[in-house]
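Cross-posting from the modeling subforum.

Setting up a comparison between two proteins and wanted a second pair of eyes on the formatting. Protein 1 (sequence, then structure tokens):
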Amino acid sequence: MDALLIYFSTPINVYFLILISFSTASIIIIGRDIKPIRNYVLKFKNINMNSMLLKYTRSLENNLSRVLSDDDIYSFTEIIWVKLDNKLVDINLNYVKIFRDYTYEQIISNNTNLISAEEEVILNKNPTQLKKIIRGKQVLLEIIKIKKENYVIFKAKNITSTNDLEQLFIKQNETNLQLMNQLTNPLIIYDQNKSPIFFNSSFKSFFSLDDDTLGKKPNESEILEILRQKKLLPYQANFREWKKQQLNIYNTLENREQWWYLQDGRTLRVISQANPMGGVTHIYENYTDKLALENETALLLSIQEQTINSLSEGIILFGTNGKVKLHNHQFNKIFKIVDNIQDLHIEKLLEEILKKDPSSKFNDILINVVSSGVNRKDHSNIMEFNKNILHYQSSILPDRSILYTFTDITASQNIENALIEKNKALSEADYIKTNFLNNISHELRAPLQNIIGFSDILEARLSNINKDQNIIDYINDIKRSGRELHHQINQILELTDLESNGLKHNQIGYSADNLSELLQSELNKLNFLDKKFIIKIHKEYKDEAAKKNSINSGFFKVFNQLIKIIDKNLVMDGDSEYEIIMSKITDHEFDQYIFNISYTEPINSKHIQSYLVMDDIYSPGSIEKTILEKYSQILGYQIDLSSEFNEFKIKVPIVAHES
């Protein structure tokens, strides 16, 4: 059944089936006119009716005045009866068979009629069809009435089977015509006189022929001439000779196939089928789109081949049978293959590859490829081949073919190994630095604490017993230098923690009342500075911040660094005191903490409008600047210093602040 479906899936085979159907039906119709076989066949066919035939023969022997001839009596196809003055006078064997319960004499004597008197009236010498019930079955009889001298002879043929076949043929013919009319390919059938007897709607539309033109029933020569005028034929230098060759099929009766390249760019495959009884069938298959698709496919395959051959990765595709379906030049180059490996099974392929490097491992790839399609899986790994490092990866395609990609990562692997070694060396150096700083911080802090401690003791005792101000100033200088050096060491350690992300921050709760205490605590850590700073909270902010808030501890570190930077850039030298008033403004992005600096003016000094010199507010490479940038980067703070308004701002992102 599948083979039949495949066979009839192509248009040309359907057309030939239709032609065969036409031929078969023609033979059936022609068979009606074949002369009946002689009556001796009847005798052999009806051997089971010996008793009836014997009775009928005896009747013939007793009745010497028969009207019917022997041919009529033993007719194979006709039912014959003779009447004289509306009385049966003679019947043949077929008539007796209809009334088989009666003998010849009984039928004649009883005047047993097959048809009624009314039906006899309408009969004449032309065949007339009548439906009758014979032995419980409806049959169709074709009857003629012949007058011979005083006799009326009736001859009837049972055409029931023939009529059924004719109806079947008509229906089949109508079905075939409907089928051909629905075909997308143009089709036309000519008879032996080259006149069209059928054409489908595709033929009309494809060649732009209207009903008026085709209604005139032009022959094939005239239709070719019309198509030439419409420029729907291939261009011919000698059209007369070409048309002669086209029409020669009516003489040769040889089937043919042609390719027509029309002047409008379309391409037709013309199949011509000669009818042995005369006539030709032409089928026009439009191959324009198919050829365009084939050309496009060929182009895409060419582009695909060029593309995969230009890849730096090796590509190979295995079918479900484990054989190579596709590969590129880079695959051959990686595995040093010189022979053609197309359609080679993977086992044979690996035999060739292992000759180059027997130590290579392909077990996972082999198992995956030889597995059945449903058991194949995507996988990847790294392997070595011929001292090169390869990364391979598989991909399962929809048809269960498996595609492998091989990438030579030798160079990148060497770079990665070098980077790992370098990173290891840097980690070791960082570890040494950290240990050094931890050790040196202890070794420096201990003597500094001693210096600062003994300086405090000396200052206390000398202030009581020695009024020499110079000695007291010297001791103060020692204390200040010690504290500053101690602070710088802490700065270095803090910077180290920031660079290694080891410094931890937490949220510190505050209110307006204790915020000044927290900030003043940071200022007190800077007691080695010449200048003194006093922090105050603006009254309006106190009222606004009645409820408790929180801020990151890094905020106070940033404040500490800014004070040291500002200390270096204030215009007043020597011991002096400054007041810092803090306020706060909130917008949709930041909480802005604003610190305004004012100078507590000593006696006999002039009022100064600006206290900050902003030209060189940041010393390049200073530790304060470095720590400030680190904190700002980690916490997302923004710093703004203004000499015009003697203030600096710390902008804290709201999101970071709330977190």
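Protein 2 (same layout):
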Amino acid sequence: MSKLATRETDIPMEHNNAQVSSVSALVQPDANDQPIHAQDHNNAPPEGNHTANSPSKREVWLPRIKLAVAVTLPVFLETMDYTVVATAQPKIASVFNRLDLQSYIGTAYVLGSTIFLPIFASLADVFGRYWAMQASVIFFIVGSAISTGANNMEALLVGRGIAGIGAAGLITLVRIVLSDSASLDDNNAQNALMIIVYSAGYSVGPTIGGRLLKISWRWIFGINLPICAGSMILMALLLPKISKGPQPPQRLKSLPPHLHQTFWSQAGTGIFRDLLRLDLVGAAIFIVLGILILLGLNWGSTERWDQARVIVCLSVGVFLLIVFIIWEYLVDHSMDHLTCSEKILGNDMELQRIAGEEPSQEGALSNKLGLRFRISRATPRFTRITDPILPMNMFTSFDFVATNLATLSSGMVMLGIFYFVAIFFVVVAGKDSASSGAQLLYFAPGIGIGVVVSLALVKLVRQPRVAIFFSNIVLPIGLGLLGQALYDKKEKLIMGYMIMTGAGVGLGFGPLTYQARFTQPEEYVAVVVASSQFFRTLGGTIGLAQLSTVMYSRLRNHISSQITSGRITPLQGLQIQSALNSIETAGGILGLPDELKEVTIEAFRDGLRWAFFSLLPWLGISFLLCLFLSKIPAERLNPKQREGATTRQ
């Protein structure tokens, strides 16, 4: 294959007489240790002045503001596109006379923007943050251009899928760039600046979408093109000097220096070595399983769970998920036999390999270490420098698992409110799409309030878990009250509880990522941040499937109970069922006779209430788990303290 495919028995050893005095220190380096192939510090994000004099406010905030400005347009682009298109789907589908495919306008975008999230984290580590960001914008431009000029529904869906891939890059890379600083203060401040842009995008999106739709549906996608061009120019001016470049491979850090250098040199140079670092096999499996599972969830929630295509998609998707986990484990542990050999037998085994002999003690070592050692030796040699998309050892961290479950639950709530509160205002309150979109604006200020409070809490107590605790209290209370207010049809209370629920989401928006990020090794920053965003987006997809299933189940039960009680006839029940097919526009429901309309609205009020109630167990489990989050050491949160501790040692 390449020089990397050479047998480990042929690896030369340049330091034959060197003894490794502390292999465990090599296997688990100190958090301050720099990798052998450290990045160019000119590309590192500024972390302030480390001289004896404290940095001025200008020195602290100027890099933060530059970074925020550099990613402002990508963030605005991502959030605005999502909300603009959501309000225009029925109109666009009707232009092509394909109302049966209108949900796929959003589905194609969500598929791309969810599945490719972890993949862009790998691209950011291998090629650098700047080039990965530019690539994501190019994907978004191409997808938006195809959608703008589409002459049929199929071309439009292709364009939305490609734009979704670009959105995946924008979603994850912006957060990676903002999280690259090793300082909690920097992470906290930059998150606060970004939430302003997010709130603006979510707030103006529905309004802009409604106005553009009156001109031409093509402007819904065409408006992205000048914003993308401006974004690329702005990033080219600001981002290269303040963002990280290509990062050293994670896989080789556990090896002794001589093996580290040897493998790195044997991997070749240029694009070939970069491609070897990418987990292409894992990415391919992940893309296929992601498409299958997301399609299965989408079809099951909007149609029926017992359909053959739903069962096949979910079954094959789960099987591939197991395959993906096994593959990622193998890649993550493909160096174990080398590390264990060096640790237990030292250089004797390596000397035998250099002499071309089969190490005499390898059999005994294999028996001693067992299956894990043998599996590691059997893994493909091209995986030696491959960085796994999702390192399985991260899932052994309680903090990583607990925070990502809470993030997934928060994602369920966020997307659920955007879709299902809109259904309330259209179906129950009888508002048009533009007016219902305007009612959702109350959720955005709530998120802003939560973020401001979390910013103050994190700055005060110096621990993300405190803000997470309050988030896990406010969020379920607000959601439960919102569900009841929807049933009671009290619009003022609905608006108030939307603000409260948004505050619960905002309280945990940044701190959940901080907790996961600062409890994992520094080299996992990109993977941790991408994982957090992936679980938030996945939570939205799972949440929509669960909310739809519960709501429609309650709808059917309510209508059946009305038929049983004699309030409506079976024929009228079928008439209501037919009207539900136009739920996105509410045209069919509002056209029902008053008696049937009243029954339908009652059914929706009950269904929406229990749909939101069904999310409470997720939030309850997240609350219990997050009670046991670990306290992050102060020196881990502040690079100055860490540097001082190292100096004293």
